[in-house]
Amino acid sequence: MHRLFVVASIPALCLAAFDEPAPSFAVASIKPSRAEVKFEHDGKTEPTPTGVNMQDVTAATCIKWAYEVQDSQIAGPAWLQSEHYDITAKTDGPVTLDQLKLMMRALLADRFQLTFHRQNQASSVICLNRGEEWTQATGIGSRDNKHPDRIRRTAPPQKAITMTEFTNFIARPLQTPVCRYDWAEG
Length: 186
Known about the structure:
The protein has 186 residues and is α+β, with helices and mostly antiparallel strands. Helix 1 runs antiparallel to helix 3.
């Protein structure tokens, strides 16, 4: 399992190692959060083809989004989890979601002076295996026909979530990485 470590006191040198400059936003605004986003434990993140809007997010939330990791895989100073921000970042033109995430990595390095490194570490991991029998037997959800990777809750408000969103949601209280079985090797 990979664990992402964050060091806030060292200038961002990891981006200089690549021949190509890292993609970056044309303009970005980071301000202290004005208000809490209700019913969202990690604030609100809305990517668009021309940028990303984040409300009431922590630096850790940005790291999780940009690097596709979970809370238990991030180590760093306490302010990563405690300081909340509103972030608006725009691109020069339409870009993919993967490009937005690369741009967020560069923004974190530039504005927060964060550096990142990955480290292999032995860790317990919970892997989920979603099967048709499980959803039928439990009555918890059913497949969303438009999005086969989503499970629709049967109780209101009928919000469909991806398996990635679900694993991230349950990883926080469990304080251990959670993945889908089909993501695991072997």
